[in-house]
Amino acid sequence: MELAIVDTCFLINWAKFRQKNDIFNIFSKLIIPSIIYTEVRSESARSFIARLMAEKRILLAPRISQVDILALKIYDLINSHPSLPSIDPPEAYALALAKYLEKPLLTDNASPRLAVEVINEVKGVRVYDSLMLLAKLYKGNLFRRKVKEFIEDTHIFFSEKRLREYGL
Amino acid sequence: MKIEEYLKELEKAREFRRRMADWKYIESRPEPLKTALKLLVETGDLWYSATMTGIPVDLLNEERIKAKIPLTVI
Asked: What's the pTM value of the predicted model, to 2 decimals?
């Protein structure tokens, strides 16, 4: 099993999911860029992260100047692209770190997922959202049930188009 | 997904947020929470709405759930 980079919103949402620990059936450890960790302030999310840090299942990535430079370039390329949805600075950093470390990025924002298809600097980076992970974790009726539970727990929905892609 | 399709889905998600949001709850919140929640309904961007109003991202997410604002993964 490999490591994956996570962004803030993804982590906050998964911290609310009743089967949040199942994510470690796919990834051995999650890497949080330190720039992102400082954004997490609520007790529930911090205690979830602290527990996983104690178990060495979450690692804090230090700020790296090469990644900062790449993040700034990605930020500029995506935000000046005529059609791509905008990307915020912490997420640009997470995408740059994923590229630098050659690890997948876990995020529920569409910007990185679309950017890896059209921006040369990040082509080849694997980007997974919650629905993709749920589909990897559960099959058949269990998948259907877990998607429902995920929506109930997090109040994060999936577009009808995306659900149809997975036969839901 | 093509970018044109994405933009269409983005608009659908915005309409969904406007329709589902508990406006009574949103209007009852003090500033800057009220503005942050309204911004979130319009943009669907949690980080942007939190940063622009000085509210921690995860605390705004808690408020988002209470305000019944759905975020849609497209």
From this structure: 0.92
